[in-house]
Design goal:
This protein has 16 helices and 14 strands. The protein is an alpha/beta fold. The strands form two sheets. A seven-stranded parallel sheet has the order 3-4-2-5-6-1-7, with helices on both faces. A seven-stranded parallel sheet has the order 10-11-9-12-13-8-14, with helices on both faces. The structure holds adenosine-5'-diphosphate and magnesium ion (MG). The site of magnesium ion has 4 residues, from α3.
Length: about 450
């Protein structure tokens, strides 16, 4: 099938042709027809499968072909969980509408509020932004959504993780539910919280799913390596990065301080690495992402801030220095490689502290994961014994003590309490995900 069979506006087809995009991906083929007839959508497909265009093409088509509900208010609002992702979606939108008399504004936390107020006064048809700042403009009466025709949530599950629920409700209330079309896209949209949100935001949504999130990603070779402690993980890290000539590598850590520290450590070994964490100013974050996106550095060391949505086609290896606590997050991190048909590798280190996460990921993927060994760096650690259900609390406590003792970074801040801060404008409170198992290190 070709894009020109999807009855999209010819200006859109022209823009796609300039980028040499001819055939829609499976999610695009399935979702776009529903979106074009105005249906609400919950769409999921694996990472790197082209979800961005699956919502941008129908959004631009609508603005080009239908008369607006309001001349002043934005017609399409696209929300993303992080500033980096919002910016990337904005850039894709910009090239799509480049040759048309259409305006788009980017509304992100951490950037000058008054400049955004000015940009909003030019009545852009499209707004791409993060939920916190968009809600601030609604409250500040610099943004009205009465004329909104389309609300799109990219990575909606992540927005909930980051505690944006209240902001999403403000946005939902500001836009007329009956007149607008609403769509959600992610690789992972199955939690109970997402279900509650879809009840509020969507009306009789059509579900479009291509594969399951847990389905094996054929373009990504995934492996797990046992590790004893932080120093051991560091030795494994420099080994795996140097074992092949990887074009670009992303390393995920649990804490910001580790992201900075490991970047320095790699630099000392003459590896061109750079650290990205939420502690940096937005300008610094932008510079780092621009530079990495242009291939200027080989290795990016970061927290979950970069796990969602970012489309960096030369990332050939993803390393989980620490495992994420939620299996969904594992899927998104690993999905920074193997995009748009490229091949990729993902290597995860599993130390005592990662064990519970490892079990959760293993159960989620429903695959038998064998541990790989690296010669000269084989761990003594072979896994924790299962916790006996009878005296659960007592044994769990014991385990956590052992875990702490064997980890050499006891003062490292916990991820959970920091996650809200990672996006800068997210509220500090993080809603616990009741559907996920709570463990001693949660
Ligand atoms: P997802 O949101 O599903 O993770 P993206 O929308 O970021 O994926 O797309 C991943 C990559 O695939 C991007 O580089 C994008 O330009 C490319 N892409 C999207 N649609 C197509 C297509 N129809 N043909 C070829 N490449 C595509
Ligand atoms: Mg995406």
């Amino acid at each position: 099938m070709q894009f020109n069979e999807l009855s999209l506006h010819h200006n859109i087809l022209k823009a796609l042709a300039i980028k040499d995009l001819e055939e829609p991906t499976e999610i695009q083929r399935k979702a776009i027809p529903y979106a074009l007839v105005g249906r609400d959508l919950i769409a999921s497909s694996k990472t790197g499968s082209g979800k961005t265009l699956a919502f941008l093409l129908p959004a631009v088509h609508r603005v080009l072909t239908q008369s607006p509900l309001s001349r002043r208010d934005p017609r399409v609002l696209i929300l993303a969980p992080t500033r980096e992702l919002a910016k990337q979606v904005f850039l894709q939108l910009k090239w799509l509408i480049a040759k048309q008399p259409l305006r788009a504004a980017l509304v992100l936390g951490g950037e000058n509020f008054n400049d955004q107020v000015k940009a909003l006064k030019h009545n852009p048809q499209f707004i791409v932004g993060t939920a916190g700042r968009v809600a601030d403009h609604i409250i500040g009466k610099s943004l009205y959504l009465n004329g909104l025709e389309m609300l799109i949530l990219d990575e909606a599950d992540r927005m909930l993780d980051l505690g944006f629920e209240a902001q999403l409700k403000i946005i939902n209330k500001a836009a007329d539910h009956r007149k607008r079309q609403s769509m959600m896209f992610s690789a992972t949209l199955d939690s109970a919280e997402i279900h509650d949100l879809t009840q509020i935001l969507l009306k009789s949504p059509q579900r479009v799913t291509v594969g399951a999130a847990s389905e094996e990603h054929k373009d990504i070779v995934q492996s797990f390596v046992l590790a004893d402690h932080v120093t051991h993980k560091e030795a494994l890290l420099s080994h795996v990065i140097q074992q092949k000539d990887y074009r670009q590598v992303i390393v995920f850590t649990a804490t910001r301080s580790d992201a900075e520290r490991l970047a320095l450590l790699l630099k000392e070994q003459d590896i061109d690495a750079i650290g990205l964490s939420g502690e940096l100013t937005q300008g610094q974050r932008n510079n780092i992402m621009n530079e990495f996106g242009r291939g200027k550095h080989q290795v990016l060391v970061t927290t979950d801030i970069a796990s969602r949505g970012l489309d960096l086609l030369s990332v050939a290896l993803v390393v989980n220095f620490d495992l994420p606590k939620l299996a969904d997050e594992y899927v998104h991190r690993v999905g920074r490689t193997g995009r748009a048909g490229n091949k990729g590798e993902a290597i995860s280190f599993v130390g005592p502290k990662d064990w519970q996460s490892y079990l959760r990921i293993k159960a989620f993927l429903q695959q038998d994961i064998a541990f790989s060994q690296i010669e000269g760096l084989v761990a003594k650690f072979t896994g924790l014994k299962p916790i006996k259900p009878k005296n659960k609390t007592r044994v769990a406590k014991k385990t956590s003590k052992k875990v702490r003792d064997s980890q050499s970074a006891p003062s490292a801040p916990r991820v959970n309490t920091m996650q809200g801060k990672e996006v800068g404008d997210a509220p500090m409170m993080r809603k616990p995900r009741s559907s996920k198992p709570i463990t001693d290190d949660d």
